[in-house]
UniProtKB/TrEMBL annotation:
Alphabetical list of Gene3D superfamilies matching this protein: 1.20.120.1080, P-loop containing nucleotide triphosphate hydrolases
Protein name stated in the entry: RNA helicase
Cited InterPro entries: DEAD-box_helicase_OB_fold (IPR011709), DEAD/DEAH_box_helicase_dom (IPR011545), DNA/RNA_helicase_DEAH_CS (IPR002464), HA2_WH (IPR048333), Helicase-assoc_dom (IPR007502), Helicase_ATP-bd (IPR014001), Helicase_C-like (IPR001650), P-loop_NTPase (IPR027417)
Coiled-coil parts of chain: none
Domain Helicase ATP-binding residue range list: 56-221
Reaction(s) catalysed by this chain's protein: ATP + H2O = ADP + phosphate + H(+)
Residue ranges occupied by any Helicase C-terminal domain in the UniProt entry: 252-425
Amino acid sequence: MTLQFWKPGTVGPGSNLDRATEIEGNVVASAPLSSQIGRQAQREGLPIFKHRNELLYCIERYGVLIVVGQTGCGKTTQIPQYLYESGWASSGSVIACTQPRRVAATSVATRVAAEVGCTLGDEVGYTIRFEDVSSKERTRIRYMTDGMLFRETMIDPLLSKYSVIMIDEAHERSIYTDLLLGILKKIRRKRPSLRLIVSSATLDAVSFQNYFNSNAASPDESVIVSLEGRTFPVELAYLSEPTPDYVAKAVEVVWGINNHGGPGDILVFLTGREEIERCLEMLADLLPRAPRGSPVLVPLPLHAGLSTEAQLRVFETAEPRHRKVIISTNIAEASVTINGIKYVVDSGFVKMRTFNPTTLLSTLTATPVSIASATQRAGRAGRTSSGICYRLYTQSSLKTLAPTTPPEITRTDLTTPILQLKVLGIDDLMKFDWVTGPPAESVLRALESLLSTGMIGQDGRLTPVGEKVAEFPIEVGIARMLFTSKDYKCGEEILTIAAMTAVQDVFVIGDGAQGALAELERRKFTAEEGDHLTLLNAYNAFTRYGKSSSWCKSHALSFRAMSRAVSIRAQLKKYMARFNLPMESCQGDAKRLRKCLVSGYVRNCARWMAEGTYRSVRGNMLLHVHPTSVMFTRKPRSGWVIFHEMEETKKTHIRIITEIEPDWLLEYGHKYLDRRTGQEMSTT
DNA sequence: GAGCACTGC
């Protein structure tokens, strides 16, 4: 790891990547930056010996260190060790390093434990949901998910056991990263001895610095440090003309590489399963026409919906004279790293979910990637040697791309996060020091929803039940449902339903005949009342038959999803015990169960219109039943349903649906405040 | 009669 002062425009080595990133460089270069550290150290008469010491000097001198470095520069593994060796973890304090993903936290911890020469969980450990491999007494370097550290602030608001907190991959701007940064800035005002390291991509470094320096009392709170890593140059190629069909174009490019390019595997970025399958079909059609002497092309799909074993196939080394071509979603951009990739083919699109606070509708649409994303994708070709990235768009369209992807906090339902901030005593949300402020409408709607469900009072303060609900590691509505299960005496079943709705892709659907077979299997669990009870049946069958993976396979269930549901259920059960919520069974009384469901889904009710379409009670939107629902083929006798979620893709779909009686809605007495008139609106 | 990018507590 080499420490360098930050220079605008030096994102990565290699001629072409440099040229391409000049656009990125210019964005950053508009901010005045120089080698501040060097000057500061000189002024204070401090000698700079080594890179490592420079870094340690910076953490001593500045409260917040913004570290810019490419993947592979060792920042995640080395910086915590430097701090540890130089005494930052003495007298019982801990160095934390957060990751946005669980796998990253575990794999990095494993590696660092080996480097330090200790058993994982001793001096070096990790903490993720359901897995705490760390010791309260012995662990000095602790890798964890950002969500876990956020949760810890609810128990220890000053995070007093930590001396240094490193927020890694901060440029990804996960919602927990953003919430944490806001809280950590606040904590540092009360506890200036706490040091912060924010690891970021070049593009975002200045905005992070501005964020931390915006405090008038300490205008030079932070400093940017750049680390040089070992990556290889990636040559960029663009289309001269835009393409109307990037899937077909990707096939063409892959075919061209295979027949004329040197050795090395290919990674193609498309947006979703449907495109991936179309691409695989087109490649399969071409395979018999391969010219003699060219490598045998081995196309492999990669997306989150695949089983674990299908996902693992992309890591297998291709046989001699074979060439892997991995057709992937965005999962390969940051979550999954495959070695040996020499060529990247980038469609330039990604599916992004955006929440509309006015309609409460999430939209999932293919949108152009940001420059940051495009750079990250290209970098996937240069991890082990130099590579080439074929971008399926024109070079001139680069300037129409956004520099970075909008942070998750601007695109998501804030009901649960805002409830959690309230637990931390952050009541005035408009005044909270956000890294990026969420849309005002999102905040208002979240508050409105918290008010209407009794989580906060008219004064905006938490109610006693709100305080408890906030602690549950699950959405507000579902947590609330767990509380009302006491009244309906159905804690046992509601808990299972809560866990099952929290995992996705429970039923494995293949294509063609396999899919039809899976459909038949799924019908075995089907409950008359709808999907929630169907999920309950599936879970109960899973436990009855010994929670086995082979049983799942023969019943078209995802073993991964089911096991996760078991963990979530066990965790939620502990919270239920803590709040004295009884684990009673409804003894097959589905009516009680459904009434309880209504309490959690007051925002999500709809009325039957015609042929698989509904109108939402709120907003009168046209809704289509998702084909995976057991309600897809059936009309609710009462004409009314509640649903777990709605999402707009080509149509607006509702998923996980249960039939209810309309008077249950009234019985529950939920009312919404009309924001314009201040009048209470009935739900009917 | 037709479909869901990716994470996290």
